[in-house]
Amino acid sequence: MSAATLTPAETERLTRRGLRLAWFTVAYNVVEGAVAITVGVLAGLVSMVGFGVDSGIESASAVLVGLRLAARLRHGHADEVKERRALRAVALTFFVLAGYVTVEGIRSLVDGETPDSSPVGLVLLAASIVVMPILARAKRRVGEQLGGDPLILADAAETRICVLLSISTLVGLGLYALVGWTWLDPVAGFVIAVFAVMEGREAWEGELEDSCGH
C-alpha cells in the first residue's frame, strides 16, 4: 500500500497503532531485560546478559520511535530531518549491542568462565520466541501499510533481532545444558553480534524495506 493512497484518517489510525506497539515493546522489554540480566549475572551467562542488554536497547529504540510517532500525531505530519536522525540513532543501538556482546564473549573465552544452567532463563527465552515474532510482524505490517515507513520498519527489525537472539541463545544454552561445552554460550553471543551489525548497517543506510520483507 502506498502512503499517498491513504486518507488522513487511515494514516492517523495506522500511526496510532504503531505508537501502541512501540509502547508495548517498551513495557515488555523493561520486564524482560530486568529478568534476563538478573538471571545472567547470577548464573554467569554471557548470552543471557547480552539478551537482557538487547532488551534495554530495544526499549530505547522503541522510545525513540514512539516519540517520533507521537510527534506526527501532534503536528499532523512527519518531520523528515528529525526522523532521519532518530533512524540513525536506532541504527547505532544495533552496533552498541554487537560491541557489548562481542567484548563479553571474548572475555568469557579468555577467562574460561563456566556458566550455570538456568531454567528461568530458558523459560524467558521460550516466551520471547512466542511473543516477539508476533510483535515484529505487527510492526512490519504497519510499516508496510504506511508505504514502507523506515522508522517503523527499523523498529520491526530491532524486534526481529530479539527473535533471532532468543533462538540462538536458547540453542546455545540448551546445548550447554546437554553436553557442557562452555564455549557455546560466547559463540551464541557472537551470532547475536553478527545479526546486530547486519541490521544496524541496513537501518543506517535506510534499506530496511527489503530486509523486513516476508
What's the tally of helices? 7
Gap from first CA to last CA: 15 Å
Q: In percent, how much strand structure appears in the residues?
A: under 5%
CA-based shape: elongated
Number of strands: 0
- Estimate the helix proportion, in percent: over 70%
Taking Cα atoms only, what radius of gyration do you get, to the nearest Å?
18 Å
Largest sheet: none
Going by helix content, strand content and strand pairing, the class is mainly alpha
The SSE order reads HHHHHHH
What is the residue-mean pLDDT, rounded to a whole number? Answer: 81
Unreliably modeled segments: 209-214
Overview of the structural elements:
- The structure is a single chain.
- This protein is mainly alpha-helical and 214 residues long.
- Helix content is 85%, strand content 0%.
- The protein has seven helices and no strands.
- Helix 1 (8-43) runs antiparallel to helix 2.
- The protein is elongated and about 60 Å long.
- Mean pLDDT is 81; it is low at 209-214.
